[in-house]
Specification:
This protein is mainly alpha-helical. The protein has 19 helices and no strands. The N terminus is likely disordered.
């Protein structure tokens, strides 16, 4: 009992200090509200698409609606880069939130007036997501400016855990609300949550954030150009893209594994994802209490650990074992987002941070969808159990390859420094 109380005290102390910062204290509740709104929209967007889909085209239309709600952010990161790059982080967050609030708010209005044609619906969803990459960059860029470096990991962990919690609570809440109101009104609630976030981001003001030099638009004409001088961050981005890509087939294979291999119901599938979500929350919050975490080794350990958690599927382990492994995989994966963002915040010059984060967001928006698209043919050819095992083995191999590359780079760096020292002495 004493150990439990001490552990709780460490966790509470790690996060309590964040709320001593006025800007973070204003921002965090609004971020949590928008996360919950997006969690509800996971159900509402697809359910409304089913209701208004053209006859005989429900599958295609649902796919188009889901894609429209996410993918335009990658294009927006490139198209609007010159316009948005000079803006401070809080304005990027406010701009994205305002656009989402306005266009998503038009969905229930169009529904109520009978004007929600399928093409109008897809256009509103696509328009609402155009600044998604810049909004994410603004969010984490603002956290970096509001908080000292020693508090960034805890803040990133709390924010990513809020997102994980919303992915559990939001769909469940939307499932209850759909029985009472139209899914269009649930999307309206999501719009209201973004309106709150836009107001809170605007309230923070430039005086609450650290003053940084303006962006040199001639030197950071694109996120990739800024990253060229940061090979370590380019490596993190490549690792993350491949990690998310290899995760994509899991979203296809797991439900088919439940139905085809195990001949079980949707309840078991829900149990897999619910325990994964709970594990991700616990893992993320635990990581936030460790301020001096060795970020690179732990990041590679997370990639390898998640891959290892999938391997029992290929060995024909019973559901009790694979459910436990999937939950453990959630705990292992939980800190990944916070650690990845902390690496970028710590290694990127402040004046380039939002530009680099926007490029990161745009690049990663493509990773999981590409992997998911690959998952369909793989499952058809190999079967769901084999695809889950393949995804795990490839992810473990990715971590091993990344560790080897990093070790060789470190050895070359040591050799260069020793050569320079010897030359200087000579």
């Amino acid at each position: 009992m004493v150990g439990v109380r001490v552990g709780r005290g460490v966790v509470a102390a790690s996060y309590r200090g964040l709320f001593a910062h006025q800007g973070f204290r204003r921002l965090m509740p609004a971020l949590a509200a928008s996360d919950l709104g997006d969690g509800m929209s996971l159900v509402a967007v697809t359910w409304l698409a089913v209701l208004i889909a053209p006859p005989g085209r429900a599958g295609l239309f649902v796919g188009a609606a889901v894609a429209a709600y996410a993918l335009p952010g990658a294009a927006g990161a490139l198209v609007f880069g010159r316009l948005l790059r000079p803006l401070p982080a809080r304005r990027l967050l406010a701009a994205d939130s305002t656009l989402r609030a306005v266009l998503l708010g038009c969905v229930p209005l169009a529904w109520a007036t009978g004007l929600l044609h399928p093409a109008v619906y897809v256009a509103l969803l696509a328009g609402s997501s155009v600044l998604h990459a810049w909004g994410g960059a603004g969010k984490y860029g603002l956290l970096a400016r509001l908080l000292p470096p020693e508090d960034r990991l805890a803040a990133n962990a709390l924010v990513s855990s809020s997102t994980s919690a919303a992915l559990i609570v939001g769909p469940a809440l939307a499932g209850l609300l759909v029985a009472l109101i139209s899914p269009a009104w649930i999307i309206g609630l999501d719009a209201a949550s973004f309106a709150l976030l836009a107001v809170q981001a605007a309230r923070i003001g430039d005086t609450d954030a650290k003053t940084v030099a303006p962006v040199d638009t001639t030197r950071s004409a694109a996120g990739l150009r800024a990253l060229r001088g940061q090979p370590e961050l380019l490596g993190v981005l490549g690792l993350t893209w491949l990690f998310f890509f290899l995760y994509g087939p899991v979203e296809v294979a797991l439900p088919l594994h439940v139905t085809q291999d195990l001949h079980a119901s949707a309840r078991l599938l829900g149990l897999y994802w619910a325990l994964f979500g709970v594990g991700a929350i616990l893992g993320g919050l635990a990581a936030g209490t460790l301020r001096r975490l060795p970020l690179w080794p732990v990041t590679l350990g997370i990639v390898a650990g998640w891959g290892a958690a999938l391997l029992p599927f290929g060995l024909g382990a019973p559901p009790a074992v694979t459910v436990s492994c999937f939950a453990l995989g959630g705990v292992i994966y939980g800190p990944f987002t916070a650690l990845s963002y902390t690496l970028f915040q710590d290694r990127t010059p402040a004046q380039w941070l939002t530009t680099v984060l926007a490029f990161r967001g745009a690049a990663l928006l493509t990773a999981s969808p590409v992997g998911t698209a690959l998952g369909g043919p793989l499952v058809a050819a190999l079967g769901p159990r084999a695809v889950l095992a393949w995804s795990g083995a490839a992810t473990v191999a990715l971590a091993a390859a990344a560790a080897l590359i990093r070790a060789r780079a470190a050895a070359r760096g040591r050799g260069s420094r020793e050569g320079a020292t010897s030359g200087g002495r000579a």
